[in-house]
Fold:
Amino acid sequence: MVSDTPEHRFFAAIYDPATAVAERTVLRPHREYLVEELGESVLDLGAGTGGMFPYLPTGGERRLHAVEPDPHMRRQALAKAAELNLDIDISDASAESLPYAADRFDTVIASMVFCTIPDIETALTEVSRVLKPGGEFRFFEHVHADGWRGRVQTLATPIWRRLAGGCHLNRRTVSHLTASRSFDVVEIDRLDFGVTPVWPFVRGRLRKRRGP
Structure:
């Protein structure tokens, strides 16, 4: 359950204004990367305020779904979907308990969400469960830095987590992703950009294995 605190409400309210310039500039190519040649059934894991929605292709038989457990973020995501006339089903489920049948999706995308997920291993197990064999999990995440930036992240994380919707600055997300036996690594790229303590980023693709 997401904590309904003043900090969460405030973070949801300022998120879009605070990231508006970045969305128009540095984030755009990475969001576009996540939606290249999507399959027919797509899940946006942790939609937030709907940052991925303008990039999601529609038409044909494509079926779009999203989950966002934070009620304040989800309210904005619903409004954005309506503004874009986007036919997308948005659930209040968490990444650790996805309300979908096994082998449901061709593609699962995650954009700057794994920093907030309490149980990464369970979430990855759920992503694997709902992906079809051969389906792709695509991600774009900020991760733990080395050196002095890493030390800054560790010091800042307790207060940052409280003020920024549960975001952990020092998550070693790549280690979790590559350790999963359910996936083969297609590609992972380190991106040296951002502003300390939100630096660096990674993006990549994992493919669900077809057999045991």
Observations:
- Strands lie at 41-45, 63-67, 88-91, 105-111, 131-142, 183-191, 201-208.
- The mean pLDDT is 94.
